[in-house]
């Protein structure tokens, strides 16, 4: 299935805030997630790391499945920082993940992975690491529901936002007005302006939300900034 993101149709893009629980107290994953959702999160961005594609490990489908059992209705995106992303499609679908976001750099066969994710009933997210140029995505964009532009080297939370990734977001937004574009890494109140101006509408924020005394306010402020920019163009 192909989605034509180039056309300027009637689809109104909305801002979605997806906190990353990477730097939360993972022994309290359920409580932390419930708190973030009560504070206004639109979806949960679950960072899955395999210690191979990135030099760190987090959790896999068994944990996601347990979390899903306690939180049945919320949109789960798994950010798959794994080699061989094909391997985990079925288990993540079984865990009732809504969107499976994998990395361009992790596979030789992007179309095949996109197709398998869709066949398993999930939305397709396709991401690139900072050193990967955005134009490699051109022939795959219509196979995806969302493009992820990493604004840090994947692997760890709490890193500094890479401002020089913003031209990638701008390029995508100017060519694909209806595309969902996500930014991830070092995003918070201090760095949301360039993301919004460049055209990102799906905002992942870990440390800035989790470590804040007022996560609700942080998410509200980021949403307001993004929505202001989205409303400018239409
Ligand atoms: O994918 C990630 C790291 O690879 C995380 O989603 C990201 O880093 C979020 O955390 P922070 O906002 O603290 O950077
Ligand atoms: Fe992530």
TrEMBL record:
Keywords from the named record: Carbohydrate metabolism, Cobalt, Isomerase, Manganese, Metal-binding, Zinc
GO molecular function, a single term: metal ion binding
Catalytic activity, EC: 5.1.3.1
Keyword match Isomerase: yes
UniProt pathway: Carbohydrate degradation; pentose phosphate pathway; D-xylulose 5-phosphate from D-ribulose 5-phosphate (non-oxidative stage): step 1/1
Cofactor note: Binds 1 divalent metal cation per subunit.
UniProt-listed InterPro entries: Aldolase_TIM, Ribul_P_3_epim, Ribul_P_3_epim-like, RibuloseP-bd_barrel
Substrates-to-products reaction catalysed: D-ribulose 5-phosphate = D-xylulose 5-phosphate
PANTHER family referenced in this protein's UniProt entry, alphabetically: RIBULOSE-5-PHOSPHATE-3-EPIMERASE
Xref: NCBIfam families: PRK05581.1-4 (NF004076), rpe (TIGR01163)
Alphabetical list of HAMAP family matching this protein: RPE (MF_02227)
This protein's name: Ribulose-phosphate 3-epimerase
């Amino acid at each position: 299935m192909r989605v034509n993101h180039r056309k300027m149709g009637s689809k109104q893009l909305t801002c979605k805030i997806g906190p990353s629980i990477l730097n939360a107290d993972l022994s309290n994953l359920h409580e932390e997630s419930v708190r973030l959702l009560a504070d206004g999160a639109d979806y949960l961005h679950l960072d899955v790391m395999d210690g191979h594609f990135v030099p760190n490990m987090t959790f896999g489908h068994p944990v996601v499945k347990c979390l899903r059992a306690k939180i049945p209705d919320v949109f789960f995106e798994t950010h798959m920082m794994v080699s061989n992303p094909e391997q985990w499609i079925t288990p993540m679908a079984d865990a009732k993940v809504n969107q499976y976001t994998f990395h361009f750099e992790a596979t030789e066969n992007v179309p095949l992975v996109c197709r398998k994710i869709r066949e398993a009933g999930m939305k397709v997210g396709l991401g690139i690491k900072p050193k990967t140029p955005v134009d490699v995505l051109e022939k795959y964009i219509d196979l995806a529901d969302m493009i992820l532009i990493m604004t840090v080297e994947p692997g760890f939370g709490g890193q500094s936002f890479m401002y020089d990734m913003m031209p990638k977001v701008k390029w995508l937004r100017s060519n694909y007005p209806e595309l969902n574009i996500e930014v991830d890494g070092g995003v918070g109140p201090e760095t949301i302006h360039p993301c919004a101006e460049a055209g990102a509408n799906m905002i992942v924020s870990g440390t800035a939300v989790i470590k804040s005394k007022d996560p609700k306010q942080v998410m509200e402020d980021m949403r307001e900034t993004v929505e202001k920019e989205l409303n400018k163009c239409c």
